[in-house]
Fold:
Amino acid sequence: MKAHRRFDVREEARVAQLAYGFLRGKSYRRIEFKCWTQPKWSRVATLISRYGCVPTQDAVTALKAWREAEDAIAKAA
Structure:
């Protein structure tokens, strides 16, 4: 029970928060300022396509552009 909360539920909450922030137009660094592991980006894209009413392929493309824009900003700073 404890392992389920620590690993499964926590990861799902994280990807849901990222998808929600993406749909609301927030920057990735504003949502996750500091993290040690990469989220499951495929799951984030799935949630974006589900709740944003966009095809999955469009969500993957938009999510990739969102991440690359954040990387460019981080390198410039």
